[in-house]
Amino acid sequence: MTNRRQILAALAATPALAAPALAPSAQAQPARWTPSRSVRLIVPFPAGGSPDVLTRLMSAHAQAALGQNVVVENRTGAGATVGSNLVAREAPDGHTILVAVISSLTAPLMMSPPPYDPVRDFRALSMLAITPTVLVTRPDFPARTVQEWHEVIQRNPGRFTFASGGVGNPAHLAGELYRSMTGANITHVPFRGSAPALVELRAGRVDFSILDLPSAAAMIADRSVPALAVGTAERLPTLPDLPTIAESVVPGFEAYSWVMWWVPAATPDAVAQRLTEVANEALRQPDVQARAAQAGFLLRGTDQAAARAHVTSEHAKWGRIIRERNITFDG
């Protein structure tokens, strides 16, 4: 049984970041790019949320590394597309960076016409962090394991509902991914945010949700709602009693949120490389690691190739689900 100590430990779990590769020193290296004015970090969500917290922690270290002011700006609206589109149209000179979230990729796929192309219009610098998801049910749901949950869903088509924080948000897409991979006949019930969705789940008015762990952690810890599994590909080391959905019932299932740094697609290589180094070095700082863990992030810090590959994979995966389920953004 998952207890409060395990949940708090889970949120403090931060995998170590790989050490940066050392550049050859046999020949003189060209001067590293430095900004000529303030650098803007555009967060497409309101101040105070997890991506904003991580960004403000990183900004102080980025400012020290770059030798210029690094300013955090919250440009919210339209499922993260207002702030994301702003960066897509900026000069590709390294002075404006998007703190991209999963909605920066998925929201335009639900719009006609889309305001930007998340693959074509951006250059991904680093996968900064992921936020694990967790399968939670109403307290009296007739299952106590993920296997039982899956069997009950399959045996009772049309009977059960799943909650999310709104049409097209990550919890909605996670539920639709489960539906697509299993053929489950379940009904989506959207709310205006994860908090009211969890309130209704605890009250027993909806049946389950696959949503970010930080949102549900307090209710899991006090056993207001049961947690049956995680939506990441691997188990969380400090929650070994929570299996993954993939290992238990749906091979290949993987759904979680993430944060990256993106810049306009035409940003030069030298600029992109320097910003990638700055981002990953900021993630290594103890204060960033500690606070990010409290906010529920699992820090990563990748090179550009890995970040680009992830964007391409997520674009194909969620684009298919959005088309298949005919999901349109409702504002």
Automatic annotation (TrEMBL):
Belongs to the UPF0065 (bug) family. It comes from Sediminicoccus rosea. InterPro entries: BUG (IPR005064), Bug_dom1 (IPR042100), TAT_signal (IPR006311). This is Tripartite tricarboxylate transporter substrate binding protein. Keywords: Signal. CDD domains: PBP2_Bug_TTT. PANTHER family: BLR1237 PROTEIN (PTHR42928:SF5), TRICARBOXYLATE-BINDING PROTEIN (PTHR42928). Residues 1-18 form the signal peptide.
